[in-house]
Amino acid sequence: MDFSPLIISLETALTATVVTFFLGIGLAYGVVRLRYFQGIADAIITLPMVLPPTVVGFFLLLFLGRKSAIGQFLLQFDINLVFTWQAAVIAAVIVSLPLMYRTARGAFEQLDVNILNAARTLGISEWRIFWRILLPNSWQGILAGVVLSFTRALGEFGATIMFAGNIPGKTQTMSTAIYAAVQANDYDSAYNWAMVIVFFSLFFVVLMNAYTSKMLSRG
């Protein structure tokens, strides 16, 4: 059995999760602090979560494909993103980012604003407030965002197959391998890969719940 779809899926999901962790927290913090156009910013960041993944993949092709302005610029440095592993990572980041952003923002907004204001009156910088107060008191929401982002990236299909393709050993993830297996009428392989995705997703969600319950019992 070729295990490359599993390896590619894990590498893609892990890389995408690292990116969405920092990007999602940063965007959540920025949007929470916005005074104007907060609703518009929130809608733009959340949009990939409500759009069909194939539409997301189509727009990625439009904005990052060879014929786009960005694509033409990258080609000057002999860089082509379409149908590469990097394209699979970008697709996974785009579709999983709203989950990290929404959970992080929800965690930030649940924190008592009086605590933050009290810290500001004591002359504590916003940077230290973020690292010493906001993040430590929002860890549950952030942890949930990490797990949800990872599992979403692990099972991404639509945007991936549109932007990265389904090249065995290069961009073929478990989700696209299932699609290829069904197309070839190989339901045994499709079932095996589907069970692997279910196992990993269930494992990380259960692990998150167990860790959260353990931390809460200590607190």
Total count of strands: 0
Task: Tell me what portion of residues adopts beta-strand conformation.
Answer: under 5%
Low-confidence stretches: none
CATH class: Mainly Alpha
- Major beta sheet, specifics? none
Structure description:
By secondary structure, the protein is an all-alpha fold. It has one domain: MetI-like (MetI-like fold). It is 78% helix and 0% strand. The chain is built from 11 helices and no strands. Helix 1 runs parallel beside helix 5 and helix 6 packs across helix 7. The longest helix has 32 residues. The chain starts with a helix and ends with a helix. 34% of the residues are buried.
Question: Which helices and strands, and how do they pair?
Answer:
Elements: H1 4-33, H2 38-50, H3 53-64, H4 69-75, H5 85-110, H6 113-121, H7 126-134, H8 139-154, H9 158-163, H10 174-183, H11 187-218
Brief write-up:
This protein is mainly alpha-helical and 219 residues long. The protein has helices spanning 4-33, 38-50, 53-64, 69-75, 85-110, 113-121, 126-134, 139-154, 158-163, 174-183, 187-218.
